[in-house]
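<goal> How does this chain fold?
<body> The protein record starts here
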Amino acid sequence: MASSGMASQALAAPRRVRAALRPIAQTTLAVTLAWLVATEVFGYTLPFFAPIAAIVTLGATSGAPVRRAVELAGGVALGILVGDLLILSIGTGAVQIAVVVVLALSVATLLGGSVLVVNQAAISAVLVATLIPPTTSLVPHRVFHAVIGGAVAVIVGHVLLRTPPLPSVARAAQPVFDGLAAALRDTSDALAAGDADAAEQALLRARALDPDVRELEQALATARDLAAFTWGRRAIRDRLQVHEEAIRQLDNAVRNTRVLARASIALLSATPPDDAPAGALTAVAEAVEDLAAGVRALGVQLTDDASPAAVREVALHAATHAGSLFPDRWSLSLARVVGQVRATSVDLLRGSGLELWDAQALLEQQDRDRDRES
């Protein structure tokens, strides 16, 4: 087993390197430019904090909004400023370091900095106080070094080698699509087997999607920020708007899937499978499986810019398949399950690009077609 684990790690290594190529290129370019700008443009001899600020800013904010990168660069500069001013006034030593850290943390906190910014201010102040104490110059040259490094990092990370906004959203969305499809598939299997415990596991799986959904929301916020610094941003924003609407409906589908799983638990707990009308559980299980296929198709539509036809076909089929059971009306629990299947179908239809009324009209037309055939 150890050898197989090592083999899988070896196979994954090239993928990790490929994924890190952009951050590596960003950091290398930012460090080089920061040093060149500080030495060749501004004439500094040893602008130590210019490349340091570039590394810190890019390393902690790669793919993050510009505002966060600017805040972090400001935290570096603030820490250096506090360290320079205090150590120049009171000298070095253990007590002085404590004073520098307290003041840097306090000022950064008062200015509304995040935990990362506050900590970076303290780290920069400690560097000034311990490694390279300031000279007697009253000009805050090292603050300028940090500003140069931070500014270069922002330009490199968000202009020259910016992270494309749409692929980052697609990557963040994939775990949600995969997890939601798996939860629906588990619910379908539970219904087909008449297993309430399995339906409960499906519910737990759907609930576990919350961290992935939050990460996706953060990726969307970041993508909106990155789009403002992207060439052809109008086209990017239009596509991003399509993604936002689809993902908003995906969030609704996640919520409805939880309700669907709870309704399935109630159905299977209250009614023995043998008492159900012939084929009823199988039919509703197949409808839920169609929903899982619809989620996967929606993921393909967004990541590959594919046609929405596949999403609409399986979503409509799921709603119609579940709706065909309604005339039996054999239990309130079954009606709840059917209602959730149809509600989630509407979410998927809207996620494919339809307005609410268009999605409902398609469902009604599908129901009328089914009634005529029966």
